[in-house]
Design goal:
The complex is a heterodimer of chains A (391) and B (240).
Chain A (H helix, E strand, L loop, with lengths): L2 H8 L4 H33 L5 E6 L7 E2 L2 H7 L3 E9 L2 E2 L10 E4 L1 H7 L3 E2 L2 H9 L3 E5 H7 L6 E6 L4 E13 L9 E4 H11 L6 E2 L1 E6 L5 H12 L6 E5 H11 L1 H32 L1 H9 L4 H42 L11 H28 L2 H5 L4
Parallel strand pairs in A: 5-10, 7-9
Antiparallel strand pairs in A: 1-12, 1-13, 2-11, 3-5, 3-12, 4-8, 6-9, 7-10, 8-9
Helix pairs in contact in A: 1-12, 2-9, 2-10, 2-12, 2-13, 10-12, 10-13, 12-13
Chain B lengths: L6 E3 L12 E12 L2 E13 L4 E5 L6 H8 L7 E6 L2 E2 L5 H11 E4 L11 H6 L9 H14 L15 H13 L5 E5 L7 H18 L2 E5 L3 H4 L4 E6 L2 E2 L1
Parallel strand pairs in B: 4-9, 4-10, 7-8, 8-9
Antiparallel strand pairs in B: 1-10, 2-3, 2-5, 5-6, 10-11
Classes of the chains: A alpha+beta (391), B alpha/beta (240).
């Protein structure tokens, strides 16, 4: 037997109470993990943004298009290595009208150079390049809609009305968390030819232009050069590096992020109070035993170690239980639901390892903090009073 | 020994060593109930010989448990001198007294006070955790102590699986496992029936005679007190 044996075995004395405390800590940690994952998922797009990527859009608003000819002009600007255009199509699957996913008209070769985190097999890539009606879709979209390579798909256009026929040429995965996995990419030429014939005012227009800067150049400087280039023209641009672009979006919801931050701290405080209450009750019940320990020679520091050790163990058990409950709940349950239904907000809803480790250490650390007062009281108790025997 | 001390010597006295093994001079202990001082011990003088078995009797509030706590080093006197084997216990600091207790005093309580989560063997080995003994040595010593009290076959039982008499014997084993020179017992038979009480008292007499332990026992039970070699009576903080 060691000193720790007594501390650990004390935990088994009030099993129901300790089990409830462990469960309470675990649930608090699940809530903490969920909130922190929401925060990290929301900021993931900014955190993982490519540092050398610039997005140029109409200076007034995103909704207004840029002339197609701007694409070549951007490519010609010093410091731009490659550029690609994207246009919002706004298509829907008539069989699943409530499913929302991004539909983008792009130029296949250039878009894959700009967004090199999109991973497609060489065969599927080639098939997409060669098929004017071919579409490249995210793996999560394919899973959600039950689409596979070779399937014929009909989408209804909202901005470009009519039934649009496509064939799934490829399914992409993403190597970084900056891209969502539910986008439907198809050929810009297919859209533009239709527009020239049926909706001429929308022809030769693009939604925005994404560019990568040459090595050694600062994205912010190149973005400024792009904007300066178009400054004297009727349609002016607003160019930002991808991180700034994403961060400016986060700025709009900063109040929500701050509120969630506060809630996560409050949850931890509640967890600490639950732990502290359990430990304090245990110490109170064992006052006489602590008196005996002191009588036979144990020092105040030994009693403090017993109490702290008990709190640390309960905190650890709660932390492990929280992770065991939280991981599948967040990753497989809530996470999967959010990724499938709100891919724009949560392209990758996964518990960051750092959050899991932090949660475990916080459970133990706050357990120690919560036990500080009971441990102090136990170490300061008067031996004679604790034995309750005054003749 | 002061003239105010009333001493009853039993016929079966054990061989005593140092006659002033425990030496108490004008010992006072005052507690405060709110702002009101309560003088529990009032200038006590007493000498206890090494190897004696003494019973302290007296009505509730007479100061016998307070005296026992002071001798055991659980409390410090308000004034006066309390030395054991030449060491002034009253002047020791908290940590020093704790260490001294662990080496010199064994405790037997009325309510046994065993750790319910530990087996009999683990309870007995508990004080040895404060020593440098190896795990195997601690276990061997605890087994020997349980053998002395006749509980070798109950080593792996938890306190809830033992009778009151057996629990008290485990307490005695815990009290002797560090081989202390003094054993203090506060109403050791108070929670036991006559038969078990007799067994415990026999064991204490044996510890005194065979192992030369100095035993101080507080009791209300005259039958228990008769087993001691000396009976001292306290009333209102003085020996009568």
């Amino acid at each position: 037997m060691r000193l720790a044996t007594l501390g650990v075995r004390n935990i088994t004395r009030a099993r129901f109470r300790v089990a409830m405390t462990v469960l309470g800590v675990a649930l608090a940690l699940v809530a903490f993990i969920l909130i922190r994952t929401v925060l990290s998922s929301w900021t993931a797009a900014a955190d993982f943004a490519a540092k050398d990527r610039i997005v140029s859009r109409h200076k007034v608003t995103f909704i207004m298009p840029l002339p197609y000819k701007y694409l070549d002009e951007v490519r010609a600007i010093d410091g731009v290595k490659e550029a690609a255009m994207s246009s919002w199509f706004g298509g829907k699957d008539p069989n699943h009208p409530n499913e929302m996913f991004g539909t983008m008209a792009v130029q296949p070769e250039s878009i894959l150079k700009i967004y090199d985190e999109l991973e497609v097999s060489p065969e599927q890539k080639q098939a997409w390049f060669e098929n004017r009606r071919g579409a490249l879709i995210g793996d999560m979209l394919a899973k959600k809609m039950g689409w596979k390579v070779g399937d014929k798909v009909t989408l209804q256009g909202t901005i470009y009305p009519g039934d649009w026929q496509f064939e799934i040429s490829g399914i992409y995965r993403t190597l970084r968390r900056s891209m969502d996995r539910t986008t439907f990419f198809f050929h810009y030429n297919y859209l533009n030819e239709w527009a020239k014939k049926n909706q001429p005012r929308s022809a030769d227009e693009v939604g925005w232009i994404a560019a990568r800067v040459s090595p050694g150049r600062r994205a912010a400087d190149v973005a400024k050069e792009i904007d300066n280039h178009f400054d004297s023209l009727d349609v002016q641009t607003l160019s930002q590096d991808e991180r700034s672009f994403n961060t400016s979006f986060l700025g709009m919801i900063s109040a929500i992020l701050s509120a969630l931050d506060i809630v996560s701290v409050v949850i931890l405080l509640i967890m600490m109070l639950i732990l502290g209450n359990t430990i304090a009750m245990g110490v109170r019940e064992r006052t006489q035993e602590y008196g005996v320990l002191r009588a036979i020679g144990f020092l105040p520091k030994h009693l403090a170690i017993f109490v702290m050790g008990e709190a640390l163990t309960v905190g650890f058990l709660g932390g492990v239980a929280g992770l065991v409950l939280g991981y599948p709940l967040v990753e497989q349950g809530i996470g999967r639901f959010l990724e499938e239904n709100l891919p724009g907000f949560f392209p990758f809803f996964r518990v960051p390892p750092a959050t899991a480790v932090t949660a475990l250490f916080l459970a133990m650390g706050l357990g120690l903090v919560a036990a500080a007062i009971p441990a102090y009281q136990a170490s300061r108790l008067n031996v004679v009073n604790a034995l309750r025997k005054v003749g | 020994m002061s003239s105010s001390e009333a001493v009853e010597q039993s016929e079966s006295s054990s061989p005593a060593g140092n006659p002033e093994f425990i030496n108490i001079r004008t010992l006072r202990k005052t507690y405060f109930r709110g702002n009101e001082p309560v003088e529990v011990l009032r200038g006590l003088n007493l000498a206890i010989a090494e190897g004696s078995f003494e019973a302290l009797m007296g009505p509730s509030g007479s100061g016998k448990s307070t005296l026992l706590n002071l001798i055991a080093g659980l409390d410090s006197p308000t004034s006066g001198e309390l030395s054991i084997d030449g060491r002034n216990i009253g002047e020791m600091g908290e940590g020093e007294r704790a260490k001294w207790r662990s080496q010199n005093v064994g405790f037997i309580f009325q309510t046994f006070n065993l750790m319910p989560v530990l087996t009999a063997l683990e309870n007995v080995a508990l004080p040895l955790l404060l020593t440098n003994l190896s795990s195997a040595d601690r276990k061997a010593r605890a087994q020997t102590a349980l053998e002395v009290v006749g509980l070798k076959d109950r080593m792996d039982h938890y306190p809830r699986e033992l009778s009151g008499g057996q629990e008290q014997r485990v307490t005695i084993a815990r009290a002797i496992v560090t081989d202390p020179r003094i054993i203090v017992a506060d109403e050791p038979t108070g929670d036991l029936d006559r038969e078990n009480a007799d067994e415990i008292l026999k064991l204490m007499v044996r510890l005194n005679r065979e192992f030369n332990k100095t035993i101080l026992m507080v009791t209300h039970d005259p039958a228990a007190a008769e087993r001691a070699t000396i009976i001292r009576r306290l009333d209102k903080g003085i020996l009568v």
